[in-house]
Design brief:
This protein has 516 residues and is α/β, with parallel strands linked by helices.
Length: 516
């Protein structure tokens, strides 16, 4: 395809052996200079689809040649890292700009004259108004997850930015859907774009029961242990985002009596084989791993998969939960979700085409009751097997000692190796708060007072329960009790839908007036 040698080396180093469907269809078209409008889900390799053509064309030392717009700061950071990684051999500078980070930090980074800028629309407009970003030498514009940006009310901001971009640029737009609003945006600001449609792959594992628990960060370990105690998983796989988290969790779970070990990229093949042998023969009941370390694992009989850290990539979620429920057997996938991660969960739900049920954390009494039930089942099952050799001994014990005391002692011996249960009820976060991102800001007429009034009117919150507020251009950050986070998100989803309907009525009304 005529790619630069440095770029080919980085592609090979990253282990890209075969392009994904979106990459194989988009990259050749993009390299020829055409605009591209692509329909593809998150996690299909979109970033490389536009990143490779951009990196193949831009020149080192010329500032602001490519602008990539993303709906959230998390995605902006993720895209910036991926582009920087691909362009490492070209010595290209990539800078992410987004709300919630000090503007001074971003100004310092922008003084390096980055060739590629990745940002959220609101913060990009802030920089444009300050004249700290110039678009006059722009060669490429990317709208990543355009449907998300429009859902969040960014359309006016996007249009203002695009109007300031050079006309003779190349534009890429990617979206999970190509609804009319998306196509209209493309028609208005793109030059006869090539359409690339990628059909979603099979998105869910039918044999797996999926649910999530809402947790606070400080009680995450206790929550996981409580679920272990209640679920009594035979063999479980726990996923963490980082190597450090894997090591910490292994240490904490082992200290509480859960037979655990971990896998991550720093381990030798010999260490990895030793751990996997222990997992397969039952010496290890809980295997904790990063996504990278778990690639290629062939493990049967995993009853539970736990997402201790929710994955940022929806396809990673699919790969993770696919480790259980194999060969038609049932399996359970449990995800721990912090309030600020609800948006990630909703992205996963859209990706798999299915809602994930929220579960209520079992109480201490329920966990103890479940443990007792399992213990009785084990005793009954053991009693069904031939035990003639022990009958005489059992008779002598019952004749010479107190039967209840002896039974209690026997149970104590049986559960001696069981994990130590946390004997207090866990604070599920009712007294904790979280700072959450909401899709309104100054551009939508929201200021602190209006945001407070909105939440009091549309949720069960009182104004005294609403904490710090940071209003930005098209997004804001508000501190609310953890238990009300879902309710707040729901209020803004309903608000956006109402606004969309109102815009539809206005357009219909305008057409009706013209027809008369």
């Amino acid at each position: 395809m005529g790619l630069k040698e440095e770029l080919l080396i980085m592609i090979e180093e990253k282990g890209y052996e075969k392009p994904t469907p979106i990459q194989s269809q988009t990259i050749p078209i993009a390299i020829k200079g055409y605009d591209v409008m692509g329909q593809a889900q998150t996690g299909t390799g979109k970033t490389a689809s536009f990143g490779i053509p951009i990196l193949n064309s831009i020149k080192k030392g010329e500032a602001s040649q490519a602008l990539i717009m993303c709906p959230t700061r998390e995605l902006a950071v993720q895209v910036a890292k991926e582009i920087a990684s691909l362009g490492r051999g070209l010595h290209i500078t990539v800078v992410p700009v987004y709300g919630g980070q000090s503007i001074d930090i971003q100004l310092k980074l922008l003084r390096r004259n980055p060739e590629v800028i990745v940002g959220t629309p609101g913060r990009l407009l802030d920089h444009l108004s300050r004249q700290t970003i110039s678009l006059k030498h722009l060669k490429f514009v990317v709208l990543d997850e355009a449907d998300e940006m429009l859902d969040m009310g960014f359309l006016p901001d996007i249009e203002r930015i695009l109007k300031q971009c050079p006309v003779n640029r190349q534009t890429f737009l990617f979206s999970a859907t190509l609804a009319d609003e998306i196509r209209n945006l493309g028609q208005k600001f793109m030059n006869d774009p090539e359409i690339v449609l990628i059909e979603p792959e099979f998105k869910t594992v039918s044999a797996v029961e999926q649910r999530f628990y809402r947790v606070s960060n400080k009680t995450k370990i206790e929550t996981l242990c409580r679920i272990f105690d209640f679920e009594q998983p035979t063999v479980s796989l726990v996923f963490c985002r980082t190597k450090r988290r894997v090591d910490e969790l292994v240490q904490l779970l082992n200290s509480r009596g859960y037979k655990s070990d971990g896998l991550h990229g720093d381990m030798s093949q010999r260490e990895r084989d030793h751990i996997m042998n222990g997992f397969r023969n039952g010496d290890i009941k809980v295997l904790i791993a990063t996504d990278l370390a778990a690639r290629g694992l062939d493990i049967d009989l995993v009853t539970h998969v736990f997402n201790f850290d929710i994955p940022e990539d929806p396809d990673s979620y699919i790969h993770r939960i696919g480790r259980t429920g194999r060969a038609g057997r049932g399996g359970i996938a449990i995800t721990l979700v912090e309030p600020a991660q609800i948006r990630l969960l909703r992205t996963i739900e859209r990706h798999i085409g299915k809602s994930i049920d929220q579960a209520i954390l079992p109480t201490l009494a329920e966990a103890i009751e479940q443990q007792e039930k399992v213990l009785i089942e084990k005793l009954v099952k053991a009693g069904e097997e031939p035990v003639e050799a022990l009958n005489d001994l059992a008779g002598r014990i019952l004749a010479d000692y107190d039967a209840q005391k002896m039974m209690a002692a026997a149970l104590k011996m049986i559960i001696a190796d069981s994990p130590e249960m946390e004997m207090t009820d866990i604070d599920t976060g009712s007294s904790s708060t979280a700072h959450i991102e909401v899709p309104v800001g100054k551009a939508q007429g929201f200021y602190p007072r209006r945001l407070v009034d909105f939440l009091v009117e549309r949720t069960k919150l009182s104004k005294h329960q609403i904490g710090d507020i940071e209003i930005q251009r098209s997004t804001s950050y508000v501190e609310v009790p953890i238990n009300n986070a879902d309710e707040v998100y729901e209020a803004f989803i309903n608000y956006k839908q109402e606004r969309k309907k109102q815009r539809g009525y206005k357009r219909t009304g305008s057409r009706s007036e013209k027809s008369h």
